[in-house]
Write a structure and sequence with these properties.
The chain is built from seven helices and 13 strands. It is an alpha/beta fold. The protein has two domains: 135 residues, Rossmann fold (3-Layer(aba) Sandwich), CATH 3.40.50.1360; 65 residues, Alpha-Beta Plaits (2-Layer Sandwich). It binds ribulose-5-phosphate. Homodimer.
């Protein structure tokens, strides 16, 4: 698995241009990407989490404020599941909100995954939802009632934004973009780990050799 993640991460370097600012996601696949990125002459990176910012700095890469960079040409991130339309479930590392922000600020989103993340249809893995802590039970009740899924509080986890995570199990996701929009409307939801309205532009799978679509 480590080899597959590393292969996907290394292949993503082909999308990096010298002198640019790169948006960088979060997770074990992205950790390989950061290590490889250290050899590129980029202007700096925008981090999607404190964990990523720390690794970027440790590799000598300048961490920049998204408010100061303008649009980014490239965002590279992993995923927990990816369907044939490059729609994703993300948030296994609880960084979904900042990941969504940096993805939205980027012209091209390159997703790097190991082969186990490819799915015919989203819904096999729990869907993370970041919530304002006081709204946890309200959001959980609303999601259970309106979707039939079972929200489980990821107890003990606090996001970089001070939010909490509900993992919604047992969802049947027929229309990912519609579900994403509906969940976004619930009071107390900060963001939803469905990346369907803004899917990846390219997905690189770390098979040997890596391939993309
Ligand atoms: C973090 C994420 C990650 O991209 C996702 O969990 C995949 O992680 P990994 O590369 O470790 O398998 O969404 O919030």
């Amino acid at each position: 698995m480590t080899d597959a993640k590393q292969r996907a991460a290394t292949a993503a370097l082909a999308h990096v241009s010298e002198g640019t600012v790169v948006g960088v996601g979060t997770g074990s696949t992205v950790a390989h990407f950061i290590d490889a990125l250290a050899s590129c002459k980029i202007a700096g990176a925008v981090a999607s989490s404190e964990q990523t910012a720390a690794r970027l700095r440790a590799r000598g890469i300048a961490v920049l404020d998204l408010n100061a960079t303008g649009p980014l040409p490239l965002y590279v991130d992993g995923a927990d599941a990816c369907d044939p339309q490059r729609r994703l479930i993300k948030g296994g590392g609880a960084a979904l909100t900042r990941e969504k922000i940096v993805a939205a600020a980027s012209e091209r989103f390159v997703c790097i995954i190991d082969p186990g993340k490819r799915v015919a249809r989203l819904g096999g893995v729990p869907l993370p939802v970041e919530v304002i802590p006081m709204a946890r039970e309200l959001v959980a009740r609303t999601i259970a009632r309106t979707t039939g899924g079972t929200p489980v509080w990821r107890e003990g986890v606090v996001t970089d934004n001070g939010g909490w995570i509900l993992d919604v199990h047992g969802l049947v996701i027929d229309e990912p973009a519609a579900l994403e929009a509906a969940l976004d409307q619930i009071a107390g939801v900060v963001s939803v780990g469905l990346f369907a309205r803004r899917p990846a532009d390219v997905v690189i799978v770390g098979d040997d050799p890596p391939w993309s679509w």
